[in-house]
Amino acid sequence: MPSLVHHPLDPASRLVRLMCAEYGVPLDLEEIKPWLREEALLEINPAATLPILFTDTEQAVVGILATLHVIEDFYAPDAVGGLVPADPMARAEMWRLVEWALVKLNDEVTRYLVEEKIAKRDLRGATPEPAVLRAAKANFVEHMLYFNYLLASRNWVGGDEMSLADFALAAHFSTLDYMGDIDWSKAPHETRDWYSRIKSRPAFRTLLNDRVTAMPPSKGYANLDF
Amino acid sequence: MPSLVHHPLDPASRLVRLMCAEYGVPLDLEEIKPWLREEALLEINPAATLPILFTDTEQAVVGILATLHVIEDFYAPDAVGGLVPADPMARAEMWRLVEWALVKLNDEVTRYLVEEKIAKRDLRGATPEPAVLRAAKANFVEHMLYFNYLLASRNWVGGDEMSLADFALAAHFSTLDYMGDIDWSKAPHETRDWYSRIKSRPAFRTLLNDRVTAMPPSKGYANLDF
């Protein structure tokens, strides 16, 4: 069975867990805290980033781009219904939005909130910097407007079919939702409906049981009717 | 002919130009300054990032991940000698290092230097912040140590064969080199030899004629014997 070195609130690790669950690939999970930059992590990945996947043959696959491609190469079901569209232009739109989640949304929102709320406390008992939290949340409002614009004319974020783009975005949403950083009472209904649909998928169940020490999830986190 | 919306010092655009040149795909180039966030750019790409490729059928492909995949899907030669290794684990190592260049090196080095030296001056005539330049250059020293470690035991950065990983890294190197941010007199010889080999490829020629208004390239930029 492949195993995944992950942190429960790392959105890239969550994307891999969602993808594997959707493809019916069981994963052994090994939890680490990448911000501790432990020697064992740095030896495998000097970038000290997650995820790291060990294949059935125990070869290390490092980083989210490599991991997504390896899962698609080795573990995607042959049957119709994968997460990567067959049409090249639909695939390009999927990659555009995967990049949006992994790079832009991460850079402007998620990584600040995880660092302030989780890593800083864990590393030196520090409390989050209110100005950073405010900036990240203001950025998220702008992202939400864009997702809502897309979802007003599309079934799924990349188009008519659910794809890896939905999972990449939902992975970030679920991290933010765990930390209580999504105000659903103010969220536009298209985005809320989309998240509700994707959260109801069997693949999502594994994430909803996650618990981080000394940080319980927000009230609606595991609730399908949030 | 496909066309590329790019900026000469944007490393992701440079990667696409290198890849297309290597594959013998001619490109129409349209230069823009993404930091101006002009309406025409935002309509195609609300993230205001480059590159944007227009295919032969004038469909927009937005962002570096989408563009790399579309070039590989539509334009890669069938013959042996592409930039994406056939072996899945070699491909995973390639993606790890592409991610290193596009995300980590960009985040810690290149984007700060381009922003300070090019975008800030262009937007408001401001001079670069010395502390930011110093931090980015100190980060680059660390990156160099790692590339040198890799190249001490490998022919190319991802392994025995040249791949997209070399081009991704070389695209960043060439942007930094243009701006005079690589001190070759102090660079370890493995990395210098590698850059010399890749810079000598015919595909690299197009980049070496680049000129940015009011910012001539560093002395050795176009020199194959730097």
Question: How would you describe the overall organization of this protein?
Answer:
2 copies of one chain form a homodimer. The first copy, chain A, has a domain at 88-202: Glutathione S-transferase Yfyf (Class Pi), Chain A, domain 2, CATH 1.20.1050. In chain A, 53% of the residues lie in helices and 6% in strands. The first copy, chain A, is built from 8 helices and 4 strands. A 4-stranded mixed β-sheet of chain A has the order 2-1-3-4, covered by helices on one side. Chain A is globular, with a radius of gyration of 17 Å. The mean pLDDT of chain A is 95. At the A-B interface, helix 3 and helix 4 of A face helix 3 and helix 4 of B.
| C-alpha end-to-end distance of chain A | 34 Å
What percent of residues of chain A adopt helix (DSSP H or I)?
40-55%
Task: List the chains of the largest interface with their residue counts.
Answer: A-B, 30 and 30 residues
Please report the number of helical segments of chain A: 8
Based on Cα principal axes, name the global outline of chain A: globular
For the biggest sheet of chain A, the summary is: 4 strands, mixed
Q: Could you tell me the CATH topology label of the domain at 88-202 in chain A.
A: Glutathione S-transferase Yfyf (Class Pi), Chain A, domain 2
The oligomeric state of the chains shown is homodimer
Kindly provide the radius of gyration of chain A, computed on alpha-carbon positions and rounded to a whole number of angstroms.
17 Å
**How large is the share of residues in beta strands of chain A?**
5-15%
